[in-house]
Amino acid sequence: MRKFKLINIVILILIIISLNANAQKNDSLQIIVNIQDSLLKKDINIIVPELIFMYEYDQAIREYLSYATFNTSITDSIENLPDTLQKKYRDKNQLPSELTKKIYADYISPYDKKHTKRLIEITKKYGFPSRQRIKKYYNKELDEEFSPHIIFIHSAKEFWEELEILMTTEKEKGFYNKCQYGHLLWHIHGRKNIQYMLDNGFKFITDEQGRKVLSGVDCK
After folding, report:
1. CA nearest 199: which of 171, 159, 163, 160?
2. Which of 25, 92, 176, 195 fits 170 for a cystine, CB–CB 3.0-4.6 Å?
3. Cβ distance 175 to 127 under 8 Å?
4. Does the pLDDT of residue 12 top 50, yes or no?
5. What is the pLDDT of residues 108-127, one digit of tens each?
6. Which residue would you say has higher pLDDT here, 219 or 21?
7. Is the pTM of this model over 0.90?
8. Please, which residues have CB within 8 angstroms of residue 63's CB and are 6 or more apart in sequence?
């Protein structure tokens, strides 16, 4: 009986220690959140234009591979076409494979690495600059598609281990939502297992064309 009571006391002590540790961790995270929010607010007009540049470079160079043009009036009009017509245009204007390889080697892969490294630096100082956080302090209009998260989705393998640790903390702080986290896990684990997304806010839905597509529906 005494041994049983002693075990219960030990368990109770461990629970109390665990609760205290969690409370201290939450308090520490909140202090960090407050500091980083303050820093982001102060430097918002410096940070956001750089993020926009990195994002738009990322998207423009990849669109060029699909449409063989940087002319957004052309690319926007093509993207509004049905899938079959989009494919027909891309097939007709497909770049030579050697040029595609050169663009990746000289203009995509090196800058993906530079942009990932820079966004990691920004995240460590300011917290992840999500669109939601930016909109709280930035007084200029943002493009509807703008998302710094995409930079990490194009990150090279050399950054994956660091990103998983870093962005798990950013999720805990509320700076990185559940769907972004699941999308990132899918990417850094080889883009093979969609369960990472299904476990983090994604579901299969039927789109306007009657197709089953994976979509983030519960991202908070």
Report:
1. 171
2. 176
3. yes
4. no
5. 999 999 999 999 999 999 99
6. 219
7. no
8. 70, 75
Give 54-116 as a DSSP string: HHHHHHHHHHHHHHS---HHHHHHHHTS-HHHHHHHHHHTPPPHHHHHHHIIIIIHHHHHHHH
Structure tokens at 71: 């002319």
Q: What is the pLDDT of residues 40-79, one digit of tens each?
A: 999 999 999 999 999 999 999 999 999 999 998 898 899 8
Q: Which of 173, 196, 177, 71 is nearest to 126 (CA)?
A: 173
Whole-angstrom Cα distance, residue 119 to residue 125?
A: 10
User: What pLDDT is recorded for position 210?
Assistant: 86
- pLDDT value, residue 214: 96
Residue 213: in which H helix or E strand, if any?
strand 212-216
Q: How many helices (H) and strands (E) does the chain have?
A: 10, 2
The partner residues of 204 in beta bridges, in order of sequence, read 214
Write the burial class of residue 155 (CB in 10 Å: 0-12 exposed, 13-18 middle, 19+ buried).
buried
Beta bridge partners of 213: 205
SS3 content of the chain, % helix, strand, coil (to 5): 70, 5, 25
First to last CA, the chain: 48
**Roughly what angle, to the nearest 10 degrees, separates helices 83-92 and 72-79?**
140
